[in-house]
Sequence to fold (620 residues):
Amino acid sequence: MDDILYQQLQQERLLNQVTTQIRQSLDLSVILSTAVEQLRQFLLVDRLIIYQFNIKQPLELEDYTSDCDQEKQPDFIQKLNLDCFFGKVTYEARSSDQIISVLNTSEEQDCLKYGCNLQDKYYHGFIQSVSDIEDNYNNSPCFIEFLKQFQVQSILVLPIVVQQELWGLLIAHQCLEQRQWKTIEKRFLNQITQHLSIAIHQAELYAQVQQQKQTLEQRVLERTEALHDALLGAQSANVAKNQFLATMSHELRTPLTCVIGISATLLRYSGEKQVEKQLSPDKQRGYLKTIHDSGEKLLELINDILDLSQVEAGKTVLQISEFSLSKLANQVIKTFQEKAKNRQIELINEPQIKSNHNLFTGDYNRILQILFSLLENAIKFTPNGGKVTLKIRVDQNTVILQVKDTGIGIPDDQKSLLFEKFQQLNSSYDRQYGGAGLGLALTKQLVELHGGVIQFQSQVGVGSIFTVYLPSLPLNSKLSQDEIAPSPLKTSLPSVYLNFPHRKCVLIENDEETATLICDLLTAAGYQVVWLIEGFTAGQQIKLLQPDAVIINLHLAGQISYEILNQLQDKPETQKIKILALTHESSCPESKLYKNLENYDCLVKPIKPDELLNKLGYLV
Fold:
């Protein structure tokens, strides 16, 4: 009797000790590893383990017929499609190294599935007590053999039920000898499993909270960085705008000063109270020419601003006609001949136009405006005694306009700003050479409006080469900006590039440079592009937008790319959306990612503009 009381006292003391430690920690691994070690020491068992369930899968009859004698199988095995949970040993405590470890042993092998018929009983609190495995499992020799290879002679199994779900099992093994399990031991371990169930539930809730907290913190961090970037962008845009306004102020005030000052002088000399000294006719003509030139400069500046705003607003209409390219070249050269001569700059016209390619269809005035802007810049930034060359040639249905100069060139660190609005490459250049800095920004807009692209090469102190590719447009009376589908960067422009205005694409790409390149290419090709930086809500947004195609980076953080593809494929509303996957692997893994290969294509990085547009064009 004294021994029983003493043992009960010890059990209560251990129970209090285990529950206290459980309450002190919300780390599941700490809770379970501590409990397993202390319980093994108290019970003096050779091995104490926690078996955790984690997978549910259908159990078929053939799973039981590999090694075991079918005639000796229990009746429950004859039932097909029995739901059976499988897992593995996740925690273990051993009395010595002589006891073989069973850590990470899984039930997904051989006759271990024999225990499936007990799972429903375990769920309802069943405790399995086996003193001799050979007597208890005599109808399953393969299961006995499996236990023997891990030295098990006696076994005690208690269920761990968490929130009405069978979470796992607490299992005691006696290995070196057989053992009769006492009722007091079963009752004690049952109390322990109840406390473990509560602790496991609390730890899982805590882990979920921590995960949600981490996710929220990450999103807050990302949003904060995005807001910071937006703030920097706004500040940068504000600085650029202020610089632009300062430049515009100078460019407007200079000719206005001439107009007002000189006209006031003329009025003074021609007024009722004439001064004694009269202006000579040459002086008067000089004053009038200054007023005229200043007025033209103001008009040119205002026209540039209006043109740029019209193009950006999408209100510009192209007037398409057929015209002579040689006539275009002669008119441009004639216009700038005098200005070049005054600057002692050699202006060269090198047409490379065959007679059968002389006629071209496009907006004559806009193309003339593009060449005017390029030649004016070339002459402005070329020192006296330099050279400016105009070349025009035709490649299939594309006209190639090239202006080459021996000017000051553009520094590498400023090339990215060349076509930006409200940007001045160098304020000292600007004040020395004049200009509001709108010319090239407007030129790029006009080129893209015409369905073309513009490139440049430049070296400081050597000069610059600007090359424009313009496709021949259909000979209609008028084409609005929305009806022009710009062409990709190449000299020969397939018709596929011009036939998909208003197609919608969603781009899922976390690299800003790659995304910017793709957005520019697709926008220039007439697509409407929505760029998603992160893919957490991509599935919902794609379902809402219903685009013609989705371009997705297969190497987004984690496995989110695969999740998005699976979501699109599983939902009827998005199954037919075309997919163009971007990968840096040597080949496209389409068979692993997307089953509907008719709606799927893949592009290996680095991205080639022609290949991107061709693949997307064929998809949509």
